[in-house]
Each structure stands twice: as structure tokens, then as C-alpha cells.
Design goal:
CATH superfamily of the largest domain: ATP-grasp fold, B domain
Largest sheet: 8 strands, antiparallel
Distance between the termini: 75 Å
Number of domains: 6
Strand content: 25-35%
Strand order of the largest sheet: 14-13-10-11-12-15-22-20
Radius of gyration: 26 Å
CATH architecture of the largest domain: 2-Layer Sandwich
Shape: globular
CATH class of the largest domain: Alpha Beta
Number of strands: 36
Length: 623
């Protein structure tokens, strides 16, 4: 058995691995960058090693530094978590060549499934159904355009080395193909150092279904049933659940058997996930579920599988990597109840889901709220959300005997999230969980885009929220030194309070507020937490409006790199036209014209590194 484990990752997955290792009596070593010097995973590990500057390319993605850290601390194994180097076959081989145990599949298996085009060919040979598309070596624009027309629009462009939703573009019409291909290739090159793509037929009623598989070095492969990961935004999963709603026993048996065949085709060891796309226009049917790709690692959504099977997948990983056989046979595995996971991100839905960085001055996740609740996080109050990495705050998970019971628990948990000043998607998640189509399990990968206007809470408080803030402020005023409320018999209090919120100042009379909102207050401000959304009120007026930039100023919403400038000084533009593209936190963000006008000036060029709120360009109304 492994005795000391180095975790080549950070954040919640590093903390998750540490927890299981500790219960197994395995010592742990954390690695960290400059930005993570005081991170929770560093504080929790038995030992820690600094591996470089904050950018991942100079720390968490440098395999030689990680292997050196393992040798320095005399660790005998490396667990890659997910992301970073977890699916890098060369790194896996380097770990093995250094005499260390690699907690993951064999490098040959990673290579076999690492390129989507080659993996699809292999799956077809193994009798696993695949989505119709183009997997050819000819990557010219002319050939790809021709193949897209032959497949029929809409089509999906996918980076062959992609993952995490990067390097993927849906194209609805021939006129949009060339631009989408250019953007896809650019993002794929930046993320995976490989700009080759494949094409797939876009399925119009798609559901994303995946199967958890596990193999050992003794030839055993089992599945741990399926998950539904259909709720996605920009091809990144947001809410996942297990088992998949509407999956009958026969379809489940067929799907899971195909997943096991896929794993056996590459002589798979360790934890892996076979991802499928289902045409759910007539429900889930075995003949309308197609292989998409294999993830040769632990998944972000693995907790929902653990919750319905009672299996600790990280423990299984460590045991299998140590040479032990799988702890259970297929017939010993069964589904118990239902589990749903929501990914809590530091991002602002009201501003196009732009990541929100900074110190978590106030954080409460209320994970003690109910039985069947599980919170996986890599931060505590006082920690910082860095601009260098994925902005996940936590994975919020709920289990119940039924889907409704699980959803009710998760809705309660998500709605009670209290975080400040970092913005989160908690309000967005709570609205998604109570949306009627989600409650009724009418799922598809277009769910979020279909309902986006209903799912994004306003950042400006309604009158009821003002009243909650006023009540909180007046509560402080009414309490005397002994903590007793002052009052007069047979008379209304007659009190009011002046508050400022979102640039508006109001005098709000006292009146007991109703609803389920909670508050946090100090000498200067009051925060109202309402179903996951946070509203800030200043106790004293600080002016009737917020300082704002010129209406046509295009401001950097976050630190990043300008990777494309599409306009020139003096050029006429129309409202919504793309002006620049900013790359930040591993994603591309297009900045568009706020109105019809003319580019008065450009402050940046492609390749420039910019800080948050830097002026990028200015649009003035056309005369």
C-alpha cells in the first residue's frame, strides 16, 4: 500500500484526496505556487513543497518540478487529481520512470483516449456507437467546410485534444463556420498546444450522459452506473446528478455495458469516465446514445456517484494503484437513492458570468443544514480566489431517497450561501434548481441557454430587499446597551433609515420585512443574502450615483491577455459587434460595442497583458 502520497493539484480536489488519504493512514504532500502559499490544501497536508510562480504554466503544469518535490519528500506515489497534468501521458510515464507510483491509468491508455478522433475510431472497432461526424487528417478550411456541409448544420467543432468545454463551438450556418473554426483553433492551441479539430453532427435534443468505470491490474473492469451532466454553460458542466432521470433498466444495462467495452478496449486501470451524447427527442433509448470521449481521470462530479453507490472512489484509486484488485465485483454494486451536485463558482451571472476574484471576507456555506448534505471546497473564510486558476468555490452535493428529496435539500443549501465581496453563481443555481423543467427532469444541454433570462437574478434589489436591509439597520438602532429593544406603548415606531444601493439612495420607513432573506452588517454596510444573491447597502449616503466610466469606454472586467483586436481607430461599429477578445482564467471573453458608433481610440494591441478596469478602447456615438 502507498505510504506517502504527493498530490499534484490544488483546491477542493487536493483537499478531497487528503481527506481519504488520512482515513487510510497515508501521509500527504501538497505542492503550491506563489498564489497558493497559504491555501487550504497546503494547510491540511502533512508536508508541502513550493513549485514556482503563480501561473500554472510555471508551477502546476511543470512535471519535472512535481516529480522533484515527490523525490525530495520521499513520497512513493503521485495523484494528479483532475485538470492540470492528470491526462498527460508523458507526465504519467515520467512519474513511472522516476520509480514512483502513478495513481491513474497507464500512459498507453491515456494516449489511446487522449485524441478524440483516434478514440472514436478505436470505439467503433470495439462496437461502441459513435456520433456521426468527420475525423479526418485533412484540416484545411476547404475540407472542413465541405465536411460540415455534408454532415448538415448545425455542427459542432471540437478540438481533438480538448476537454472542459474548451475548443468547442456550435455552428448554426455556413456563413459562421470560418470564424468559429478560427476561434476554436486558437483556444485549443492555447489550452492543449494542438489546434486540430473534428466535426460532429449537432444533436438537437441532447442529453449528456456519462458512465463511471473502474479497472484494475488484474483484468477486472466494472461500472458504477451513470450520471446526467446535461446542465451546461459554454460546454462546462454546472449541475450533475446520478442516476440519470428517465433511464430504464434495459437502456442502463446497454449503456453501461458499452462503457465497460470501451474501457477494456484500452486495457484500462483506475478511475475513468465514458461520456455519451443522447438524442432524447423520444426519451433515453439505447440506439440513440453515442460515444463522445473518455476522461482518463477522476471527474469533478464524482461525488454523486459516491453518494448513490456508497463507494469512496479515491480510496479505490489508491488501492488499485497499489496493485490491489477492485474492492467490489459488478454484482455487489447497486444504486441507492439519488444525488445532485451544483458547482459554486466565483463569477457574476449579471455580468456575463465573468469570474470574480478577491478575498473571501465573509463566507458561510451552511453545510450543517441537513442530513444528506456534502460540501467539497478548497477555501475557507479569509482565503483568496485567485485570477490564475479555475474560480470554483465549492461543490455542493445533496443525497435523498428520491430525486425530489435530493433537489429540495440542494435548493435549500444553495439558497443559503452567503459570500462577500466575491460574487458567486449561487442565485443562478438556486433558480435553476427550482425551474419547472428541471424539477420535472425535462433536461437537455440547451437548458441553461433556453432559460437564461429567468435564471440570472437581478443585481439591483427589489423593494422587499430594501425593507430587509432597513429592518437590519433599524434593529441595531433600537437595541440599547443592554441589548433590549426600545419602544413606546400605543404608538408606531415612526423610524426610517437612509440607505444607498447600486447608486440609488432611498429613505426606507420601518416595517417588519417578510421572507427568507438573511443579513450581515457592520458599521458601514448591510448585506442582504436572498436565495444565493448578495445585495450591498451602505448605511449612509455616499452620493446619489456611482462613479462610472465614459459610456463608451470598454474596460477590462478582469486581469488577462488581449488575444485579438478586431477594430481600428476611426472604424464604424454597430451595437453588439465584437471589438476585442480577452483571455482570462483559461477562457476567452469577447468584448462588444455598447452602441452604434466610431472607435475613438485603442489603448491596447494583441498580446498585451492588462489589469482589471484598464481602458481597452473607446466608442463614441456616430455624428
Amino acid at each position: 500500500m502507498i505510504t506517502k502520497l504527493l498530490i499534484a493539484n490544488r483546491g477542493e480536489i487536493a483537499c478531497r484526496i487528503i481527506r481519504t488519504a488520512r482515513t487510510m493512514g497515508v501521509a500527504t504532500v501538497a505542492v503550491y505556487s506563489d498564489a497558493d502559499a497559504k491555501a487550504l490544501h497546503v494547510r491540511q497536508a502533512d508536508e508541502s513543497v513550493h513549485i514556482g510562480p503563480s501561473p500554472a504554466a510555471e508551477s502546476y503544469l511543470v512535471g519535472a518540478k512535481i516529480i522533484a518535490a515527490a523525490q525530495q519528500t520521499q513520497a512513493d506515489a503521485i495523484h494528479p487529481g483532475y485538470g492540470f497534468l492528470s491526462e498527460n501521458a508523458d507526465f504519467a510515464q515520467a512519474v513511472i520512470d522516476a520509480g514512483l507510483i502513478w495513481v491513474g491509468p497507464k500512459p498507453a491508455s491515456i494516449r489511446a483516449m487522449g485524441l478524440k478522433d483516434a478514440a472514436k475510431t478505436l470505439m467503433m472497432e470495439a462496437g461502441v456507437p459513435v456520433t456521426p461526424g468527420y475525423l479526418g487528417a485533412d484540416q484545411s478550411l476547404e475540407r472542413l467546410t465541405k465536411e460540415a456541409e455534408a454532415i448538415g448544420y448545425p455542427v459542432l467543432i471540437k478540438a481533438v485534444a480538448g476537454g472542459g468545454g474548451k475548443g468547442m463551438r456550435k455552428v448554426d450556418a455556413p456563413a459562421d463556420f470560418a470564424a468559429a473554426l478560427e476561434s476554436c483553433r486558437r483556444e485549443a492551441k492555447a489550452s492543449f498546444s494542438n489546434d486540430e479539430v473534428l466535426l460532429e453532427k449537432w444533436i438537437t435534443s441532447p442529453r449528456h450522459i456519462e458512465v463511471q468505470v473502474f479497472g484494475d491490474a488484474h483484468g477486472n473492469v466494472v461500472h458504477l452506473f451513470e450520471r446526467d451532466c446535461s446542465l451546461q454553460r459554454r460546454h462546462q458542466k454546472v449541475i450533475e446528478e446520478a442516476p440519470a432521470p428517465g433511464m430504464d433498466a434495459a437502456t442502463r444495462e446497454s449503456l453501461c455495458a458499452a462503457a465497460v467495452r470501451a474501457a477494456k478496449a484500452v486495457d484500462y486501470e483506475g478511475a475513468g469516465t465514458i461520456e455519451f451524447i443522447a438524442d432524447a427527442s423520444e426519451g433515453l433509448r439505447a440506439d440513440r446514445i453515442f460515444f463522445m470521449e473518455m476522461n482518463t481521470r477522476l471527474q469533478v462530479e464524482h461525488p454523486v456517484t459516491e453518494e448513490i453507490t456508497g463507494v469512496d472512489l479515491v480510496e479505490w484509486q489508491l488501492r488499485v494503484a497499489s496493485g490491489e484488485p477492485l474492492p467490489k465485483r459488478q454484482e455487489e454494486l447497486s444504486i441507492n437513492g439519488h444525488a445532485i451536485e451544483a458547482r459554486l463558482y466565483a463569477e457574476d451571472p449579471a455580468k456575463g458570468f465573468l469570474p470574480s476574484t478577491g478575498r473571501l471576507e465573509y463566507l458561510s456555506l451552511h453545510e450543517e443544514a441537513a442530513e444528506g448534505i456534502r460540501v467539497e471546497t478548497g477555501v475557507e473564510e479569509g482565503d483568496t480566489i485567485s485570477p490564475f486558476y479555475d474560480p470554483m468555490v465549492a461543490k455542493l452535493v445533496a443525497w435523498g431517497e428520491t430525486r425530489k428529496a435530493a433537489n429540495d435539500k440542494l435548493f435549500s443549501l444553495v439558497s443559503s450561501v452567503e459570500i462577500w465581496p466575491v460574487r458567486t453563481n449561487a442565485g443562478f443555481l438556486s433558480r435553476a434548481l427550482e425551474q419547472p423543467d428541471f424539477v420535472d427532469a425535462n433536461l437537455s444541454t440547451s437548458f441553461i441557454s433556453d432559460w437564461i433570462d429567468d435564471l440570472i437574478p437581478s443585481s439591483v434589489a427589489e423593494q422587499e430587499i430594501w425593507e430587509v436591509a432597513a429592518e437590519a439597520a433599524l434593529y441595531d438602532i433600537w437595541l440599547n446597551d443592554e441589548g433590549l429593544a426600545a419602544f413606546r406603548l400605543n404608538s408606531k415606531p415612526g423610524l426610517s433609515i437612509t440607505l444607498t444601493h447600486a447608486g440609488e439612495t432611498r429613505t426606507v420607513p420601518f416595517g417588519p420585512a417578510i421572507g427568507g432573506s438573511t443579513t450581515y452588517r457592520d458599521d458601514e454596510m448591510i448585506l442582504v443574502f436572498d436565495y444565493g444573491t448578495t445585495y450591498q447597502f451602505d448605511r449612509t449616503s455616499r452620493g446619489t450615483g456611482q462613479a462610472s466610466a465614459h459610456d463608451g469606454d470598454i474596460i477590462a472586467p478582469m486581469p488577462g491577455k488581449v488575444i485579438a483586436v478586431d477594430v481600428a481607430k476611426g472604424q464604424t461599429v454597430t451595437a453588439g459587434q465584437r471589438l476585442l477578445v480577452l483571455e482570462a482564467m483559461k477562457m476567452e471573453h469577447a468584448l462588444t460595442a455598447p452602441f452604434d458608433g466610431v472607435i475613438e481610440g485603442l489603448a491596447v494591441s494583441a498580446g498585451a497583458q492588462v489589469q482589471v478596469e484598464a481602458l481597452l478602447c473607446r466608442v463614441v456615438p456616430a455624428e
